[in-house]
Design goal:
alpha/beta; TIM Barrel; eight-stranded parallel barrel; two-stranded antiparallel ribbon; 10 strands; globular
Length: about 300
């Protein structure tokens, strides 16, 4: 096509375009706004961190008034007193924390101590059944200079295996917690430990702060443990804080530490977790402190 004719046609096409109704041209496609995640998570608090004075009922009333929906009770309490307080306040008890797994570990070299620890776990499961809790928190073993890693693995697995039939009968799951016991130090190993029981009644109670203190990243653990997670413990942590002459890890107030809460909550969303988020955090010694904890937890859950 001669250059003069090309220019003529191009000019005509441009003029036509300026006169053509706009409805002949499709509207530009705009990027969709990010979806707002509606998390179905409930706010709970660990009983051992509720330091306000008073009876079980008075403490539960303070927890309810602060804005919590549930409380993770300790084992070996007066069941009837706990149930009366639960029913009068309307709080839910989603989990029960064993109180003997540190002094009577299932990994102890003394079989009599392991037997006492097993009996304590059985009682914890029965407490949970009475309270209509769906799981119990268990520290499965403690590695020490005297108790080797492989001994802790073998002994704790053997003892937990003995109680799985009771857990199945009661309909209550045993949830293993990651904590400073020098055991199950990686998410792959933690998943393997649970899976080798080959039972739906053994899962995981994931503690965000405990994981951070061990040098890991909780969002990675959450994705690897996935559906094994039965409950979440929400705890804040700083990797290095100045204490005396040397920096060391330590706890912090919620939202004032090093946890990447948006990343943690994104991982929670990714695995489809919709259960309880339970604070195990200092600050619950007053009613004002409890309210502050509940509000900070709410901000974390909305991150």
């Amino acid at each position: 096509m001669p250059r003069r004719e090309f220019l003529h046609r191009s000019s005509a096409a441009l003029a036509l375009a300026t006169l053509t109704p706009s409805w002949l041209f499709p509207a530009p496609v705009r990027a969709a706004a990010p979806a707002v995640v509606a998390r179905s998570l409930k706010k709970g608090i660990m009983w051992g961190t509720v330091g306000v004075p008073g009876s079980v009922l008075e403490k539960m009333k303070a927890v309810k008034e602060a804005g919590f929906e549930g409380v993770e009770m300790n084992s070996h309490m007066d069941q009837e007193e706990v149930l009366r307080a639960r029913d009068q306040t309307g709080l839910v008890i989603p989990s029960v924390c064993g109180v003997r797994h540190w002094d009577k570990p299932l990994s102890d070299s003394n079989p009599n101590v392991r037997a006492e620890g097993l009996a304590a776990l059985q009682q914890t499961l029965r407490d949970a059944k009475r309270y209509e809790a769906s799981s119990v928190l268990l520290v499965p073993a403690v590695v020490t200079q005297q108790v080797s890693y492989n001994e802790a693995w073998d002994r704790s697995r053997a003892e937990i295996g003995k109680v799985i039939p009771l857990a199945s009968e009661l309909g209550v799951k045993i949830a293993i917690e990651n904590v400073g016991n020098q055991f199950l130090l990686s998410p792959l190993e933690a998943a393997r430990y649970v899976d080798e029981f080959q039972s739906p009644f053994v899962g995981w109670h994931f503690d965000v702060g405990n994981n951070f203190s061990n040098g890991g990243w909780p969002e990675q653990w959450i994705r690897i443990l996935g559906k094994r997670i039965q409950k979440l413990h929400i705890k804040e942590f700083v990797r290095r804080q100045r204490t005396g002459s040397a920096p060391r890890p330590g706890p912090a107030r919620l939202l004032e530490g090093d946890n990447d809460w948006p990343a943690v909550m994104k991982a929670v969303d990714d695995i489809g977790y919709t259960g309880w988020a339970i604070t195990e955090q200092p600050g619950g010694d007053t009613r004002e402190g409890l309210t502050d904890l509940a509000q900070r937890l709410g901000r974390i859950l909305a991150a």
